[in-house]
Amino acid sequence: RARSWNLSTRPALTTRVLLAQATRVIAHAAGVDMDAAFNLLRSHSCANSQSPHTTAGRIVDRSLTLQGRPL
To answer: Which of 38, 42, 6 has the alpha carbon at shortest distance from 21?
Structure first.
């Protein structure tokens, strides 16, 4: 039963970790707090019809930037 719970929560945990990493990258690059950084990530996702997970992945792998800096 514990294994089942672990397997079912792993994707959600992975997404949360990726979103947290991307939010930290944005906060550092843009010089904003974590709430503002997450709002930038979410706004960009929505404006570009991408899931926040996809946008976060692109931020973390540095394929998405904002004015020459990671978004």
So the answer is: 38
Distances (CA, A) of 57 to 4, 16, 26, 41, 60: 26, 11, 12, 11, 5
- C-alpha of 4 from chain center: 26
Beta-ladder partners of 65? 70
How many whole angstroms separate alpha carbon 54 and alpha carbon 41? Answer: 10
Q: Would the pTM of this model clear 0.85, i.e. be above it? A: no
Mean pLDDT by 10 residues, the chain (71 residues): 62 86 94 96 94 95 75 55
